[in-house]
Write a structure and sequence with these properties.
Layout (H helix, E strand, L loop, with lengths): L30 H13 L35 H15 L4 E10 L10 H8 L1 E8 L3 E9 L5 E8 L7 E4 L1 E7 L6 E10 L10 E10 L2 E5 L6 E12 L4 H7 L1
Antiparallel strand pairs: 1-10, 2-3, 3-7, 4-5, 4-8, 6-7, 8-9, 8-10
Amino acid sequence: QPDKQISSSSSSCDPALRPIIRRRARSLPTSPERKRAAVQCQVSGCLSRMNRVRFADALGLELTQVKVFQSGEDPSIPLHVLSRLSINSDLWYSSLDLEFTMQCLVPDFQQPADGMDFSSRLQKQQVCLERVTSSDLGLSGTIHVCNIAFEKRVSVRYTFNQWKSLHELSAQWLSSIPEKNGQNMVDVFTFFLPVPPFLLQLCSVVQFAVRYQVNGQEYWDNNRGKNYSLTCRTHPLKMPRECEESWIHFI
């Protein structure tokens, strides 16, 4: 706003002051405009309703809702939150090293790839499980098969209840590698077997065998007639005290 020059004759030359006109936003028309719009809509036969936004306080309601728990009424806490609280409690109250236990599936057999007779088993059976690992989601494994023909199918047959019922899933081709003698090629297949969380209870067992179908023939690897089995067991985990903050942050 420019500065005014103060003089005896300046008062008679000042411009007349005009009142400030407040304009209503177009998004919020005045009441007469709303009425005219409604009349035009009815005359033209328009059946659509005008979009309106109302807030709870305009209707006499509260903007917030407060839940009051009575004595003896506990709030519902999800199971995964309770498990994390339990882990954090174990970490907090442990004295020296942080230690807690987890339940996981542990193989009841030696990993075939770690055995000295892995190659001979493969040549004899034409198919052999190489290795299997477990996680909280299920089992992952790799299978070796002799490359008898290009068209082949590899699958895993498994059970959760001692073969009272069984299921089967297909393994996926991963790669082709030369055999240890360097003369023949071996195809590597991979599979993932999901295990429902409710089955991860102490002493629960998962059993499976591997089937290889090629050239109208069928070959099996069932761990020499005993099947491959994994039992759910408690597995202790330890961690130094200085890693407590980083571990809780990771969880």
